[in-house]
Design brief:
Layout: E1 3-6, E2 9-12, E3 17-23, E4 32-38, E5 45-51, E6 56-58, E7 66-71, E8 76-81, E9 90-96, E10 107-108, E11 112-117
Parallel strand pairs: 2-11
Antiparallel strand pairs: 1-3, 3-8, 4-5, 4-9, 5-6, 7-8, 9-10, 9-11
């Protein structure tokens, strides 16, 4: 499974971006897909995930601002980011589970950079 992120860029605080994660075709139904981010000098952190039942969860700092969604017909995962803050600046990665029954992340994209300026 190959994942390719897009949609990153530079935006002023308060602005919006929509990230996309296109995946190569797979023959199973992954239990979950998620977004992670890594800021310079910091460890990678989980941002949001969505499972195959369309149930979503978010880390506290993005709850109410970010929306994760998926288009199964297009094998594409999205992250709508609104009310962006400078602390959202990071490399954003999508990941997908190889399992159909548990949420784990074995496949990763190369990342897309998001820079938020004040």
């Amino acid at each position: 499974v190959q994942l390719v992120e897009s949609g990153g860029g530079s935006v002023q605080a308060g602005g919006s971006l929509r990230l996309s994660c296109a995946s190569s075709a797979y023959t199973y139904s992954p239990y979950c897909m998620g977004w992670f981010r890594q800021a310079p000098g910091k460890e990678r952190e989980w941002v949001a995930n969505i499972n195959k039942y369309d149930s979503t969860t978010y880390t506290g700092s993005v709850k109410g601002r970010f929306i994760i969604s998926q288009d199964n017909a297009k094998n594409t995962l999205y992250l709508q980011m609104n009310s962006l803050k400078t602390e959202d600046t990071a490399m954003y990665y999508c990941a997908i589970s190889s399992s159909t029954v548990i949420c784990s992340y074995e496949y990763w994209g190369q990342g897309t950079q998001v820079t938020v300026s004040s």
